[in-house]
Amino acid sequence: MLIAAVIPLYNNPGTILEVALACRKRLAKVVVVDDASTLLPPDFENTLADNDITLLRHAQNQGYGAAIMTGLVELSRQGFDYAITLDADAQHSPDDLPAFTEAIAKEGTAKDTIFVGVRDFTVPNVPDSSKFGRSFSNFWVKLETGVACEDTQSGYRAYPIPPMMKMSCISSRYTFAVESLVRAFWGGVQLRELPIHVTYQTRDKYVSHFRPFVDNFRFSMLHTWLVTRRLLPWPAKRLVPKPATPPYPNPFRHPIQFLRYLLKENASPQLLATSAAVSTFLAVLPLLSCHTLVILYVCVCLRLNKVMALAIQNLYMPPVTPFLCIELGYFMRNGRFLREASMQTIVHDIHLRLLDWLLGSLIIAPLFAIIAGAATYLIASRLQRNLTTQ
Fold first, then answer.
1. Which of 172-181, 328-337, 347-356 has the highest mean pLDDT?
2. What is the distance between the alpha carbons of residues 65 and 274, in angstroms, rounded to a whole number?
3. Bridge partners of residue 195, in order along the sequence
4. 3 - beta bridge partners?
5. In this predicted structure, what is the pLDDT of residue 34?
6. HEC string of the chain?
């Protein structure tokens, strides 16, 4: 297995040489990708050349993801199998490289596994924004792929190069870390997680190029697109050969095992709450005679708990929920409630009330979804705590 390190660089003059030289002691091939830095240490190019470290440069700043891909393309051209990426700011320890190379030697021979370093957030000076960002990102990646990853924003990874060369990402900046992971899982790439050390400087010394508003907006737009893409009816691009056996029991040959699989599928409190909220939102909308099909389709695409989703939709069966929506929608259009509500005006004349139903549902559906999701989360968390203490 040919393994190299790729270090994306943008204005880390105080740490880049330390990181690159430490990586070179542990790996025969190290690639530094300079993303148009304006601050570099003295005699930078000669120092890298003297230590047989490859330097690639961008004429203009293109972003973190673009720098990673530049390194991967170069290593693919040279026939390498894996690229281990780590940050240039000394946040990641090159001492963890042997753990990656050993894991690759044992489990990465098929080049169908991505190795992700899970940062230790018990160390000092970890920003609260990093803790929240990781939890937020972990949730959405789980929703989009069905794969639970403990650190979806970690930049310390070992990418299998052949599958990465088949991947088409729209992200070129920090969002690449999440998008590449999601598309890898969609394409059948397996996940292996490794604990890694991490060092955060104090606030006065901490150097970060992450722009909270701009980059968080990009993350929000990315997750919106990834969820939308997941709901589209055509499959994602396959990056590695499909396994011979599915990851779930055959429902016809092993119905009991399949039922148990459905009950346990994505059954964490967060994802049960998501299943309840999504099912509630769709059940309130005026999807005449096809609520169950739509809810089931969305649950299959997002790998939500189907048992929870199909069960909770029964809470919103006619006539109560449609009546509330129609009354609210009628009030929004006319400034007064529909006082002559009856079987004739609500049921037999339903075709005349569809606009009222739709308008009212746009208010009631998200409100009920929040209530159902919050209640489900509280109940599931309580049950989970009770089970773990028994």
1. 172-181
2. 30
3. 118
4. 82
5. 97
6. CCEEEEEEECCCCCCHHHHHHHHHHHCCCEEEEECCCCCCCCCHHHHHHHCCCEEEECCCCCCHHHHHHHHHHHHHHCCCCEEEECCCCCCECHHHHHHHHHHHHHHCCCCCEEEEEEECCCCCCCCHHHHHHHHHHHHHHHHHHCCCCCCCCCCCEEEEHHHHHHCCCCCCCCCHHHHHHHHHHHCCCEEEEEEECECCCCCCCCCCCCCHHHHHHHHHHHHHHHHHHHHCCCCCCCCCCCCCCCCCCCCCCCHHHHHHHHHHCCCCHHHHHHHHHHHHHHHHCCCCCCHHHHHHHHHHHHCCCHHHHHHHHHHHCCCHHHHHHHHHHHHHHHCCCCCCCCHHHHHHCHHHCHHHHHHHHHHHHHHHHHHHHHHHHHHHHHHHHHHHHC
If you average pLDDT over residues 172-179, what whole number do you get?
Answer: 93
Segment 179-196 shows an average pLDDT of 96
Span 299-326, pLDDT tens digits:
988 888 888 898 899 899 877 888 889 8
Asked if the model's pLDDT at residue 130 lies above 90, the reply is no
Q: What residue segments make up the domains of the chain, in order of their start?
A: 3-231, 255-389
Say how far apart CA 256 and CA 382 lie, in whole Å: 27
Per-residue pLDDT at 250:
73
How many Å apart are CA 361 and CA 372, to the nearest integer? 15
pTM for the whole structure: 0.83
- Residues pairing with 54 in the sheet: 31
Q: Decide which of 3.30.2350.10, 3.90.550.10, 3.30.420.40, 1.10.1610.10 is the CATH code for 3-231.
A: 3.90.550.10
Cis peptide leading into 319, omega within 30 of 0? yes
Residue with tokens 């009991």: 256
Using CA atoms of 302, 308, 309, 312 in order, give the dihedral in degrees to the nearest 10. -160
Residues in the chain: 390
The residues that bridge with 348 in the sheet, in sequence order, are: none
Distance of CA 295 to the CA centre of its chain: 22
- Determine the straight-line distance between the first and last CA of the chain, rounded to whole angstroms: 47
Contact 9, 34 (CB under 8 A): yes
